[in-house]
Structure formats: C-alpha cells, structure tokens
Design brief:
By secondary structure, the chain is α+β, with helices and mostly antiparallel strands. An eight-stranded mixed barrel has the order 24-25-27-28-29-30-31-32, surrounded by four helices. Strands 7-6-11-10-9-8 form a six-stranded antiparallel sheet. Helix content is 51%, strand content 21%.
Length: 953
C-alpha cells in the first residue's frame, strides 16, 4: 500500500514538474510574442500620432500668425486714425480752450470713428488738461500718470517738436487700476493698446500731447471674422487667464502643457491649440477639434490590434497540443523508473525516523539497488555512534558555555561601570597597595597609562597624582571627604570609604567648574557684567552700610553721580563694541580715583556712581569731582583711534533730611540732571531749588502732553516785510500756549521740554498741519514759514509727513517755507540730506534760522542750497552799539546778494535799526516795530489792511 502511494506520488511529481516546465516555457513564449506585438503596435501608433500632431501643429501655426497679422493690421489702422484725429486743428483748440465739456463733446465721436475707448490730453509738463469724459478725475490722473510707463513715451514724443515729421507712439500694456487711473479711464480689462500723438498750435509748436487707449475686447470683431473664415477658434490668454476669444464659445479656457509638436490641450474642450507670444506677455492661440487626429490614429492602431489577436489565438492552440503530448510521454516513462526504488525508500524512511535496527531488504543484489541497500546499513551504524558522542559533548559544552557567559557578563559590567564613572576611582588592599583603578583617575591627574599597573602603595599613588600635602593621619581606611587644590588651580574632592576586608576605596572628582560657577554667580549678583564694577544692588548695600556708620560715627556720606555726554554718538559712529570698551576704560579710571573705602558702581547705560565718606577726601569732594572731569577728558583709544569724551557730575552729601541711601542717591541724580540741563561738562552740587525745578519740569511735561492732545496750543503769525516794496511776503508761525490755570507759558519754557521728552514730534506735526490749513484761508498767495526742530529729523519720515500735509490741506508746496538750524546740516546724516532733497524736489522752500550763531554757518550754506538766511536777532539788537555787529550785518547782506539768497533780519524794534538794515541791503525784516505776532483769526484782516495801505501809497 505504501509502495503504491509512493510510486503514484513520485510519478505524479515527475509528470507535474515536466508539464509545469513545458507550460511555463510556452506561456513565456506566448507572453514575449504578445509583448513584442504590443510594443510594435504602440511604436506605430506613436509614430502616426507624432506625424499627425506635426501636420496639425504646422497648420495651426500658420493660422496663428495670420490671426496675429490681422490683429496688428487692426492696431495700425487704429493708430493711423488716432494720428489723423490728433492733427485736427479743432481738437488742439478744444483741448487747450479750458472748456472740458466742449472738448469731451468733440473727442467722443472722433474716438468712436477711430475705434478707441477713450483719450486724455496733457500739457508739456504732463499735467492732465481734459478727457473724453467730463466727470474724469484729472487730479488723480496727474498723481498717477508720472509713475506710469506711458509718461516716458509721451515725454519723448513731446521733446521732438517737429510738426512736419511728427511721430507718435503705440504701446501694448497690461491694463490695471494704476494705468486706468493715470488715463482717467473707467473701462476694465487686462490688456490695452495705448496711442500717443503730439498736439501743435497754429505756429507748429508742440503744446501738449493726446493719449488714447483701446482695451482688448472679450470678442474682437477682427478675430471673429477670421475664426468664421478659417473654421478655427482663436484664444488670447495671459498665463492661464482667458482675455479674448473668437469662434466657438469657450469659457474659462485653460491650456495643458505643450507636447513635442508644441500643441496644447484645451482643458474642458475636445480641442488642441498652437500658441505664439504677443506683447505684453500674452499668447495668441488658434485651436482645432481633436476628432480627425484621434480617428486616424485609432484606425491604424485597430489594424495592429487585430493582427496581434490572431497571432495569440494560433499560439494558444499550438501550446495546448504540445502540453498534451508531453503528458502522455511522461506517464509512460515514470512507470518504468519508480518501481525499483519503492522498497529502499521505505527503509530509508524508517531510518530517518530513528529506527536504526530495521531490516534492510535486497542487500544481496549485485545491481545499483543492492549498493543502495548496503549503504543504508552502514548509515544506520554511523548514525547510532554519532548520536551517542554528540549527546555527551553537548552536555559538557552547555555547562562550560553558561559559566563563561556569566563571567564575561560580570566583567563587562564591571569595566563599563568603572570606566564610565565621572569620578576617578582607586581601590587599595589591606596592605595599602593599589588593586583597582579606572581611566578617569589617570585623566584627572595626568598619569600615563600603565604606570599604576605595578601595585604601587598609597603614598606612591598620591605622589604621582601631585597630592604631596597628604598627611599620615589622613591615610588608611577612615571614612572622610577631603578637598585638595592642585598646582594648576583645579579643585579635587576626595571621598574615602572603608571596606570589610580592611582595604578602602577612594573616589576623586574634579569640582573646579562647580566652585568657579558658584564664585561667578556670587560675583555677578553684585557686579556689572561689562565693567566689573559694583552694580546697583551692591551699591544699595554699601549705601546702607555707610548710613549705618553715619548714624554711629557721624561721618557724612557723599554720593557722586556721573553721566557721559554724547555717549550715543560714540555708539552710532564707532559701534557698540567701542562703546562697551569706553565704559570699561571709564570704570578703570574712576576706580583709580576712588579713595580707599569708597565704592564705584555702574547704574546702567553710561551712568556711574561713587559712594565715599567726605572725611576720606583731604581736598574735598569738589576737588575729586574736578579730577574726575580731568581724567575723563584725557583721550581714550577706541577702535584704532583716539576719542575725546566729557561728562556731567552731580554731588549730594548726607544731611539730617536724608532718610536713607536711596534718598541720597536720588538727590545726587537730581544734581546730575541739573548739570546736564546747564549744557553738561560740569559739576553741580545738590540744592533744594534743583528738586523744585525738576518737579516743575515734570509738571510742564505732563501738562504739555495734555495741551497737544486737547488743542490748547494756538498759532500766532508774525509778518515778514519786503524792504524794497514794504509789502508783506510771508508769515512765520509761532506757537503760543495759554494754560487754563497758569496763563501764558513762554515757548522758551515748553519748547526745550518738548525736545527733551520727544513731544516735539507731536507738537511739530500739529503746528505744521495747522499752519498750512490756516494759510489756505488767507487772501492771495503769501507764504507761511514753520520752524522745524532738528529732533524731528530722527524718525526719518519728515518728508513723507510734509507731503501728506500738503495733499491734505491742498496748500501749494511753494507757499511753505521750513526754517531749520545749521545743526541739521552739521549732523552729516545721509538720511537727513535725502529728506531735505526730496522736500526741495516737491517745491518746498528752506530758510536757515539763527544764522551767524553757529560755528559753521558758511559751511552749511556750501553744503545745502537754502532759499533764505535769517540773521539772528542778537546782531540786530547790537547793530547800533557795536561796530562788529554792524560789520557782520553788512557782510551777511553782501553774502545774500552774491549767492542770490534772500536775507531776513529778525528782532527789528526801532526805526534806526530798520534804516540801517535797509541801507545795508537786506531783503526782508521782521520785528515788533512792524507788527507783533497776530492771532490766526486776525491774519486775513491784517493782509487786507496792508493791501489797502500799499494801494494808497
């Protein structure tokens, strides 16, 4: 039964394997044939498709060029008709007649004949004069046209000035809101043709230009006619946006990527298109149906597919017949081969199951079956002996392997723990010899590897480690913790732990970083990180200690506060690293001057303080303060150059009124503020009046902030008179503050406070806007002069603010005059020069105020072109008493005439001063003799009265 099953199984496997191999081979052959046929068919289809695409692409390219030519012809025709319209004499007269209604009535029919959407006329200065629509916003067109791309083309056309050879321009531009605003247009679109032609007067002179525009239609008539004749669709696109179309209605058309023949699929439609570029950055595309190309390609591919199917059917029939033949042959051969092996196979199966004593049949046969049977007998004996030996060896090997694994694991753990400790470790035996150490111990003390491998004693180990101060009492197995400092300054913490066998273990840890960090933290908590001086916290402690000593011993405590003058200028010119180095050098110089027992501290920024006892100063505190100023004025070497600085000092000495150190420090700070308010570079000792002035200043700052926000500041206007005609030329705006409780507050009081606190920006903005608005209410075209503080230039937006005020108030720029001092020019700030240049380009006038009081007034005139110089009133006041003042007045008048600059003298209070100024040749005068400042409400009446007086004269 077993033999029959085995025989059938083997036979089935042989037949199955052969049939499977044959079937796989035939299937592979069929697959390769099908694969090659499909590949050939695809190649043919690709070639046909490529040829068809190339043919269609060439035809569409020709059509696209023809459509582009028709579009260009239409553009040239419109340009000719527009040029003809511009040359008409009635168009030029209507444009420059000033009658916008008549001009628009004349332009509209002419534009319709020229197929234009609109037109706008400009003068030689590119100012809009009229448009085809009466309601056109010409003011907005003026603002936008100068920055439009059309402005440069029109300016070039106007510059040629040749009526016989007059040439215009034609542009194709992207249509946006800015271009529409520049042309006063209301049409919407994306692309437009812009045409420009010069306008001539009766004498052949260019008097202006006419600009017309035509926005691209959604359905251009020219392209519609072309699409009807060619049976093609025409599309004009910008990127993927459809601008215009002709032919079949295509909405939201988008093009796919270009093929090898440069054809684009029209997404959402069964069409393909060929495109050519057109200005400005658009594409003109001609589209055709995809049906013809698909039909031709489908026919060729269908023929190939039918051939492939016929070949596949033939191969399948041949493969089936071949498999049937192979199966019959294999069944016959398998029955003749498998029977002799059945019995021996059964025996081998028993041996494989471990039955090594089974009887092996046919061992007496002389053929190959007998050889196999005898070999099976030998195999039975060999397997039995081998298994016995294997079991013995396996048992012994298992025991040894387990012991070795455990020992190896313990050693690895010990080595890893020992060599990865952050502390150095060494273990000594009961006799004091080294037994174990780790690599960290050698690294801490710089001991070479291998030196400690000879069982050295504890004394030898300590000597190698540099621990020479180890006493005999500290040796041995006694639990303790020691700290040693090595020769290189490192701190080592040593912990000794005794062991049960009489030995001990030492751990050594480098704690230098921890000790240094703790010391550094303690230092930083009480010292300035930049200069190393005491900080405000330590200064408070020293003040408290000094006041405690003052309470016991009665010694007066002195506090000196110091602030560097113009420290910001050092940072701005040389950089912050140079500023930091200056602070460090100043700290060292102050420390050298401070007597023993005193404290020098940095309070922050460029402010320092010194606390000391007056009894420690043999020459007094003022002598020390003067010595500090002398040392500060010595040059400092910063950033490769010598720099001079100065400082201001405030001093306060303790008295019975001082409650604590903070109060004394505050008083010294008040004295410092008084020194800086007096111009700096000096020493001031605290007085009670200083604190009262500071309180008054704080009150003034608070009230001024409220006054600006609630419009308490009023403007008065003082007139300036022309000495040649005695007529008023302009008014200077002067701020006046009437406080509801304190009455009138002088500008000399609140202007410096505004400049020191930053309120000058808000005050200056208020005065400028109010003055421009008031000037618009005056009769005539008199100028208004507004003073500008140098501090207002810091923000960097003064030019933009002035331009916004002019636009808001509609004051012509030539009626505004800004008065600045020479400090703005001397600052050498490029940003300030750029702001001044931009304001001058707007037409704003500039006057140098307080001329002659600075040390570089002439240099300022050479640096920037001023329209006027105003002589400081101190020269006018001394004009009759001092010959020097009279000479300076004469020189300034001559300087103004030479430079062609208006000269103005302010502060004229007597007829004699006026006569001398008139004789010297001054252009203008201003002063109480002629008129006091006038409230804003009375300026118009004053102007009218002056005009009546002038007429009567």
């Amino acid at each position: 039964m077993t033999g029959t099953v085995f025989s059938r199984s083997l036979r089935a496997r042989l037949v199955g394997a052969t049939l499977s191999t044959a079937a796989i081979a035939l299937a592979a052959l069929v697959f390769l044939v099908v694969l090659r046929s499909g590949q050939t068919l695809r190649e043919q289809a690709q070639e046909v498709s490529t040829w068809s695409e190339a043919q269609l692409s060439d035809r569409l390219l020709s059509d696209a060029k023809l459509a582009a030519a028709r579009l260009q012809m239409q553009r040239e025709d419109v340009e000719r008709r527009f040029a003809t319209m511009a040359k008409r004499w009635d168009v030029a007269k209507a444009v420059f007649s000033g009658n916008t209604v008549a001009a628009s009535e004349l332009l509209r029919p002419a534009l319709a004949l020229a197929d234009l959407d609109g037109a706008i006329a400009f003068d030689l200065n590119l100012r809009a004069l009229t448009a085809d629509r009466v309601e056109a916003d010409l003011l907005a067109a003026n603002a936008a046209f100068r920055t439009s791309p059309v402005a440069a083309s029109l300016r070039a056309v106007l510059a040629r000035n040749d009526r016989e050879h007059a040439e215009g321009f034609a542009l194709s531009l992207r249509w946006d809101d800015a271009l529409a605003r520049a042309l006063a247009a209301t049409e919407s679109g994306t692309v437009a043709d812009i045409f420009g032609e010069p306008l001539f007067d009766d004498f052949g002179e260019v008097i202006g230009g006419l600009v017309g525009y035509r926005v691209l239609r959604a359905h251009e008539p020219t392209l519609t006619a072309f699409a009807s004749l060619s049976n093609r669709d025409v599309l004009i696109l910008a990127d993927q946006n459809l601008l215009s179309s002709a032919g079949s209605e295509v909405s939201n058309a988008q093009l796919g990527p270009a093929s090898g023949a440069e054809l684009h699929a029209v997404l959402g439609a069964e069409k393909v298109a060929r495109c050519i570029p057109q200005p400005p950055d658009i594409r003109l595309c001609v589209a055709a149906p995809l049906r013809e190309l698909q039909q031709l390609t489908g026919k060729v591919v269908g023929i190939g597919e039918e051939s492939s199917r016929a070949l596949l059917r033939t191969l399948s029939v041949v493969a089936g017949l071949t498999l049937c033949l192979v199966a019959v042959v294999m069944l016959f051969l398998s029955s003749r081969i498998t029977r002799p092996l059945v019995r021996i196979t059964q025996t081998v199966s028993e041996v494989a199951r471990g039955n090594w004593h089974v009887s092996v049949p046919d061992i007496d046969r002389a053929d190959e079956v007998g050889d196999i049977a005898r070999a099976v007998v030998v195999l039975e004996h060999s397997l039995s002996e081998r298994d016995q030996l294997r079991d013995d060896v396996f048992r012994q090997n298992t025991v040894l392997t387990e012991r070795e694994r455990q020992l190896q694991e313990q050693n690895e753990r010990f080595d890893a723990a020992l060599n990865n400790m952050s502390q150095g470790l060494c273990m000594f035996g009961v006799h004091g010899r080294l037994k174990v150490y780790n690599s960290q111990f050698c690294r801490i003390y710089g001991i070479a590897p291998g030196v400690l491998d000879l069982d050295p004693t504890q004394d030898e180990v300590h000597r190698l480690a540099g621990l020479t101060d180890w006493s005999a009492a500290e040796s041995g197995p006694i639990r303790r913790t020691l700290t040693r400092t090595l020769a290189d300054g490192r701190c080592i913490e040593i912990t000794v732990e005794p062991m049960a066998d009489g030995g001990w273990v030492e751990t050594h840890e480098d704690v230098t970083a921890s000790v240094t960090a703790q010391a550094r933290i303690a230092h930083l908590a009480t010292h300035d990180a930049l200069t190393g001086l005491s900080n405000r916290a330590l200064l408070a402690d020293r003040l408290a200690a000094a006041f405690a000593d003052h309470a016991v011993g009665g010694r007066a405590v002195t506090v000196i506060c110091l602030d560097l003058d113009d420290f910001k200028g050092i940072n701005d010119t040389l950089g912050h690293p140079a500023g930091d180095e200056l602070l460090r050098q100043v700290g060292r110089r102050l420390t050298g001057l401070c007597p023993s027992g005193g404290t020098v501290a940095r309070l922050g920024g460029d402010e320092f303080a010194m606390v000391l006892f007056e009894a420690d100063l043999p020459d007094g505190v003022l002598a020390l303060a003067e010595q500090i100023l002398i040392q500060l004025r010595r040059p400092f070497f910063l950033a490769g150059q010598f720099v001079s600085v100065d400082g201001s000092l405030g001093i306060a000495v303790s008295g019975t009124e001082d409650a604590d150190g903070d109060d004394l420090l505050r008083r010294a700070d008040v004295a410092l503020y008084a020194a800086k308010a007096d111009g700096g570079r000096r020493v001031r000792v605290f007085e009670q009046e200083m604190e009262e002035r500071q309180n008054q200043r704080r009150w003034l700052e608070r009230e001024l902030r409220l006054a600006i926000g609630t419009a308490q500041i009023e403007l008065h206007y003082q007139p300036l008179f022309d000495l040649a005609t005695n007529a008023v030329t302009s008014f200077e705006a002067l701020a006046r503050w009437h406080h509801p409780e304190s009455g009138m507050i002088s500008p000399g009081e609140f202007i410096p406070v505004a400049e020191a606190t930053g309120l000058i920006d808000a005050l200056g903005a208020y005065v400028l806007e109010r003055a421009c608005a008031d000037a618009m209410t005056w009769p005539g075209s008199l100028r208004v002069a507004v003073n500008i503080s140098p501090i207002q230039f810091r923000e960097g937006n003064l030019d933009r603010f002035v331009e916004e005020v002019l636009l808001k108030t509609e004051l012509p720029s030539h009626r505004l005059e800004l008065e600045i001092t020479e400090s703005v020019i001397l600052s050498q700030d490029q940003a300030s020069f750029e702001m001044l240049s931009r304001l001058r380009s707007l037409g704003v006038r500039f006057s140098m105020d307080d001329f002659g009081t600075g040390y570089s007034s002439l240099s300022s005139l050479n640096t920037f072109r001023f329209d006027k110089i105003k002589l400081d009133q101190s020269f006018v006041r001394n004009l009759l008493e001092k010959d020097e003042a009279a000479a300076i007045v004469h020189v300034v008048a001559e300087l103004g005439r030479s430079l062609k600059i208006t000269t103005t003298a302010e502060g004229v209070e007597t007829p004699e001063q006026l006569a001398r100024l008139r004789a010297s040749g001054f252009s203008e005068v201003q002063g109480y003799l002629l008129s006091r400042p006038i409230p804003a409400a009375g300026v118009a009446a004053f102007i009218n009265a002056q005009e009546h007086i002038h007429v009567a004269a």
